[in-house]
Amino acid sequence: MAEKGNLGKFSRADFVRIVANRVKAISAGKNAPVKDLYSYAPNKLAAALHPHVQQLKVREIIEHSPDMKSFIFAPDPAKGTEKLAWFSAGQYIVICVKIDGKAYSRPYSIASSPRDALSGEMRITVKRVEGGVVSQYILDNWTGGTEVIASAPLGEFTYEPLRDAKTVVGIAGGSGITPFRSLAKAILEGDEDCNLTLLYGSRTPEDAVFSDEIAEWAKQCPKIKLVNVYSEKKKRGCETGFINAKIIKKYAPEDEAYSIFLCGPQAMYEFADKEIETLGLRRKFVRHELFGEYFHPEKNEDYPGDIEKTYRLTVRIGDKEQTVDCPANTTLLRAMEAAGITAPSDCRSGRCGWCRSQLTDGEVYIPESTDGRRMADKIYGYVHPCCSFPLSDVTIIVPPTPYGA
Amino acid sequence: MNQFDVIVVGAGNGGLVAAATVAKEGFKTLLLEKHNLPGGCATSFVRGRFEFEAALHELCGDSTCEKHESVRTIFERLGVDVKLYHEDTLFRTICKGENGYDAVIRAGYDGFLDSMEEAVPGCRESVKSFFDLIGEIDDAQTFMNENGINPMVLYTKYGNFMRVASHSAKEVMDALEIPEKAQSILSTYWGYLGVPVDNLNALHYLSMLTAYVKAKPSMPYHRSHELSLALVRALQGFGGEILYNSEVTRFVYNAKGEAIGVIANGKLYYAKKIISNIIPNNVFNRSNRSAIPAAARKLANARKLGMTFNTIYLGLDSSMEELGITDYSVFIASDPDSRKQFDDRGEYGMYVVNCMNKALPDSSPKGTCTLFFTIMVMPGDFPEDLTPQEYKKYKNKIAEKYIRDYEKTMGVSVMDHIEEIVVATPATFARYLATPDGAIYGYASETWDNIIGRIAMKDGENKIPGVYFCGGHAERGDGYPSAYITGAMTGEEVVNDLRRGK
Questions:
Q1: Which CATH superfamily is domain B3-82+222-303+446-499 in?
Q2: Which of A32, A224, A271, B42 is the most buried (most CB within 10 A)?
Q3: Which residue, among B16, B132, B160, would best test binding to A if mutated, counting the most A CBs under 10 Å from its CB?
Q4: How far apart are CA B332 and CA A95, in angstroms?
């Protein structure tokens, strides 16, 4: 073919130079080991922000009541964690414990501030859950010096300045105060820049842990406001009843947008969500912490199964296979835990996807409100065992759990 | 149980195709992936009521008229059936300033040439002459695939191929007397390869551009994650196995220096052949020094890492119509010159904004839409001393800067509508891909390390007995099709070597 345009000015012989140039350039390369991965700034930062695991030690225990304690962790350099990971106020860590040789994990909001992590301190607050294997175990067994394996900080219940309004109205119920304690302290310490008006619902003043402390921070920092709302006691300067639209309106900014962040028990969400609906806020201005574990799927109209039944759950991890019982009212994850099978899990609310497994046989029920799967996962048969209930005998392929318990 | 014919390390696009290719031929195959998802970049993530595409802008090569291996031919061979949706418009390209332009360029040869002519009257013939080269290039490639590189035949029969192959896209466009402004518009896709056109091999650019022009750009409905899952299904259907959360921490060699296995999760897995979808640098760092030939080390040290990105994912609480967003893919540049765009990459030099709803209207809930910003970053750009506590502010500063510029340039309001926001930086890619410097495009395919040189030297480089490479760092460079193609070619090479007892 004749040359096009002025391509004729290029020598065809240039072609042979390609290889020669390449050989020359390579021969000038250093005959030395390539740079270590963690000598690159992005890799170094990623490793600091997202360690595979945090090896911790209980440094201090604060007993709020027999059924509620705060545990203050320090890093455990002997086990390989020199520093605690930085995080955004509102995030959680997953605590891994072994009880009777079985591995359990549970997410807990970080109650301390990000700056506390810099000085080697991270705090969670644990409340006794009726029938809760892990909370009971922690409250009754952890002492100073107990070694604890935790995940890196996770979760999206954080203040995002480009998304959220400048003022956050926090609605906390009971132990749902912990992420707000973290946020309040982060504001006080200058690491987050928003106004926090905290509506804190408790039964009585005695139940309102951290209330005095946060009130003290509010005195020091005009960006923080605390309103205690007691359901079972009247107190001057406090609100009485449940946190309703009237109370929110009373304390929220009048003529500017505000975001509502909610963290508390599921009953609180049910009540508060109806109240918030009457305020006519845009959806983007209302954000919930994770819903938590799902119980009683049979209460949903679309539940197609027989809740009294017990099925066989076959679990394949690598080349190991095990078959265990899974009652219809129990998630695949809980059934694995109860049988002593270590499986990955983080949020236990269907959202984070860490427990994602392949369903190769059988059927499950996934309540729509907890179904945080990717679209393609639904089509190709992947489930989040933390919110999947068996409707038949089921086989799943579960990824190994390389870190944690 | 731990003995395999082939172990593939890394379930990125290349690794998935390579694993499926060898499994299809009946070889016992294990694919090890460090993450709990397949795909590498080819994935998605959920925030609130949005599912975001992590990486794919548009797929090229979904065409039956390709003469060579393409996404379509590979998927068909593996029985992968993912419906792809096509977009009629290639891109809208906006250059701000005095010598600026704002042009919408359509797909298909005629559409492309017509819209070029509309944008730059009189450029049609010269632009056409650029595309005309592809015919000879295709023929020459077919010849080389069948007969190897025979300089004498190439010299006499494929002269233009030889001329183009050894020059930059810029030099070729100049020689064809394509008007400057048309050159700028024609160069819009340079970012897909990460090298400005003055340093980018003409053949490489032309091959990619024509692949997009010829077959309309396409995408799967359920994000890239669907492509990755379809490939996993193919692999499993052929009897292969994929193991997640299983980072290969060590490559194991025998006394002769041949790779015999890998260690993942503290467990040793044996294989006759190992295919690495992870970048050679990481293989070298996880191997005994004596196993890596000096030539391979010198090559890795001589190379420059390829491009990476800051990306911003926005879920907006209004529809694209309500917001006045009209385009699927907008390239916004501050200067017509791609070199200048590259140099100013930290200051609006060039960035891309995609609104998936234009191509797939119900890709987000009714009354919402998503935007996906891609901002170029070169390895080394990321601040050396950025602390974890400064990181969130750093990310938000970048996001605010580019969202504001987009609003100003397009005359739309976005900031007030953000319902979900995720900002990724090279640190994010370093976390999920574990590549050096968070590089996404493997090695920069520029100057001496262009893909012509890579392909020509493929058989002589990175020769570690028993180890084969595929993916964005391999000879075809970055991009989904390139990674799929090297996956297929490497898979076939391994199949042939196993059958020949090599």
A1: FAD/NAD(P)-binding domain (3.50.50.60)
A2: B42
A3: B160
A4: 46
Express each pLDDT in B58-67 by its tens digit. 998 776 555 6
Strands (E), A208-293: 224-230, 239-240, 258-263, 286-288
Bridge-based pairing of strands A310-317 and A394-397 is parallel
Distance from the Cα of B229 to chain A's closest Cα (Å) equals: 7
* Lookup: tokens for B304: 């420059």
pTM for the predicted model, two decimal places: 0.97
Could you say which DSSP state residue A206 is in?
G
Unique residue bearing structure tokens 């930062």 = A45
**ipTM of the complex in this document:** 0.96
Written as one letter, the residue type at B1 is M
Residue ranges, CATH 3.50.50.60, chain B: 3-82+222-303+446-499
Contact (Cβ atoms closer than 8 angstroms) between residue B379 and residue B436 = yes
Q: What is the DSSP pairing of strand A195-202 with strand A224-230?
A: parallel
Three-state secondary structure readout of B363-406: CCCCCCEEEEEEEEECCCCCCCCCCHHHHHHHHHHHHHHHHHHH
Question: Which chain B residue's Cα is nearest to A49?
Answer: B388
User: Is the CB of B284 less than 8 angstroms away from the CB of A377?
Assistant: no
Classify A5 in phi/psi space as left (phi over 0), alpha (psi -120 to 50) or beta. Answer: left
C-beta neighbour count of A28 within 10 angstroms: 11
- Best A4, A154, A286, A361 residue to mutate vs chain B (most B CBs within 10 Å): A4
Residue-wise pLDDT tens digits, A292-341: 999 999 999 999 999 999 999 999 999 999 999 999 999 999 999 999 99
Q: What pLDDT is attached to residue A405?
A: 42
* Cα nearest neighbour of A155 on chain B: B47
- CA B20, CA B237: separation in Å to the nearest integer? 9
Token pair 């048309």 is at which residue?
B182
Query: Is residue B239 within 8 angstroms of chain A, CB to CB?
Result: no
Window 133-152 of B: residues touching A by CB (8 A cutoff) are 133, 136, 151
The confidence band for B138, taking pLDDT boundaries of 50, 70 and 90, is confident
A43 vs B436: CB contact, 8 Å cut-off?
yes
- Contact flag B36-A28 (C-beta cutoff 8 Å): no
Q: pLDDT, tens digit, for every residue of A4-36?
A: 567 888 888 888 888 899 999 999 999 999 999
Amino acid, res. A332: L
On chain B, the residues whose CB falls within 8 A of the CB of A88 are 392
Cβ pairs A/B, distance under 8 A: 256
Whole-Å CA distances, B343 to B172, B308, B458, B484: 22, 14, 31, 30
Average pLDDT over all residues of chain A: 95
How far apart, in whole angstroms, are the C-alpha atoms of residue B14 and residue B490? 9
Q: What is the pLDDT of residue A2?
A: 47
Nearest to A163 among B51, B301, B421 (CB): B421
Is B397 within 8 Å of chain A by CB? no
Domains of chain A: 48-150 (2.40.30.10), 167-288 (3.40.50.80), 297-397 (3.10.20.30)
Domain B308-377+383-424, second-level architecture = 2-Layer Sandwich (3.30)
Instruction: Check CB contact under 8 Å for A373 and B166.
Output: no
3-state secondary structure of A153: coil
- Rounded to 10 degrees, the C-alpha dihedral B489/B495/B501/B502 comes to 20
